[in-house]
Write a structure and sequence with these properties.
alpha/beta, Rossmann fold, 2 domains, eight-stranded mixed beta sheet, about 25% helix, globular
C-alpha cells in the first residue's frame, strides 16, 4: 500500500516504472532526475518556487564543509533516542538533503520522502540519497495519507503543524530545528545598518507534547567565499539590497554565532 495520495482527488497513488497514478487516471511522471512533481501551483514561470539553483549550491557547499556539524550531531542524537523504530520519514522542507542523509545513515528507514517546492534542491536531494523519493509539493498540503507517517524532520523550515498532525501516526515524533535570538547576528551586523535579533518561536504546539530538546550554541570562524555562501543560503539574501550584499565582499574572515534549538515533539 502506498501512503502517497493524488493532489487532485486524494485517491491513493500507486507507483509504475516512471510515474505514479491514481484510480481516477491522474498520472504524475518522475523526472529524469528522479523527482516526482505533485505540486499543482507552480505553473507560473514568474513566481519563485522555493530556493533557486544558486541558493541550493551555496547551501550544499557550505554544509559539506562541516560548519554546522554540531547541529547535525544534535539531530542524530535525538533521532537515535526517539525514532530508532521509525520506518517512514518525511523531511518537510528538505532542501538539498544534508540532514536527511545524515539521519537515514543511522536509522533503518524503509520509506524516505523529501518534500520541497524547489526542483533544484530536490535534484541534489536525490543525489545525496538515491533510495529516497523527492517530491515537489507544499509542506502545507502534503500528498500523504493521514495517520501513516512515523517521523517528520523540519530543519530551519516553516512548520506546517496542522499537516504534521494529519499525517503522523499517534505517538509518532517530529523533530524541528529553529533559530534562537543570536543566530548569525555577526553576519547581520556586517551587512545591515540596523541589525536585528531573531524572534524565537514558542515551544508549545497544539496537538503535540514537547519531549526533549538540545540547544546548540557556538561560534565558528569562516573565510572569504564561505561567508557569502552562508548569507546566500539564508532567507536574508532575497530581502537585502545589492548595496548591502556587496559589503560581504570586503570581509575576509568573521566569527559567527550559531545558536539553534532542536526540539522533539510527540503527537498526542
Amino acid at each position: 500500500m502506498s501512503i502517497l495520495i493524488c493532489p487532485v482527488c486524494s485517491a491513493e497513488l500507486t507507483p509504475n516504472v516512471k510515474s505514479y497514478k491514481c484510480k481516477n487516471n491522474h498520472c504524475f511522471d518522475i523526472s529524469k532526475y528522479g523527482v516526482l512533481n505533485l505540486s499543482l501551483n507552480n505553473k507560473s514561470s514568474k513566481k519563485r518556487h522555493g530556493d533557486d539553483k544558486a541558493m541550493v549550491i551555496a547551501r550544499k557547499d557550505f554544509l559539506d564543509k562541516g560548519y554546522y556539524n554540531p547541529i547535525k550531531t544534535a539531530v542524530i542524537t535525538l533521532c537515535e533516542k526517539y525514532c530508532k523504530n521509525a520506518k517512514t520519514l518525511i523531511d518537510a522542507g528538505c532542501g538539498e538533503g544534508y540532514y536527511t542523509n545524515s539521519v537515514t545513515d543511522v536509522l533503518k528507514l524503509k520509506e524516505i520522502y523529501g518534500v520541497d517546492l524547489s526542483k533544484d534542491a530536490l535534484r541534489y536531494f536525490k543525489k545525496r540519497n538515491e533510495t529516497a523519493l523527492p517530491i515537489v509539493s507544499s509542506i502545507f498540503k502534503m500528498p500523504f495519507e493521514k495517520n501513516e507517517v512515523d517521523f517528520i524532520l523540519s530543519m530551519f523550515a516553516p512548520a506546517a503543524y496542522d499537516e504534521f498532525l494529519r499525517v503522523l501516526k499517534k505517538d509518532a515524533y517530529f523533530i524541528k530545528t529553529k533559530v534562537m535570538k543570536n543566530h548569525l547576528i555577526e553576519l547581520k551586523q556586517a551587512v545591515y545598518d540596523n541589525p536585528y535579533y531573531n524572534d524565537e518561536e514558542p515551544d508549545e504546539i497544539v496537538g503535540f507534547e514537547k519531549t526533549d530538546e538540545i540547544i546548540t550554541d557556538y561560534k565558528t570562524l569562516m573565510f572569504g567565499e564561505d561567508i557569502k555562501k552562508l548569507f546566500l543560503m539564508t532567507p536574508y539574501y532575497y530581502k537585502t539590497s545589492e548595496t548591502d550584499q556587496k559589503k560581504l565582499d570586503l570581509i575576509k574572515k568573521i566569527s559567527v554565532s550559531v545558536s539553534v534549538k532542536t526540539v522533539v515533539y510527540r503527537k498526542m
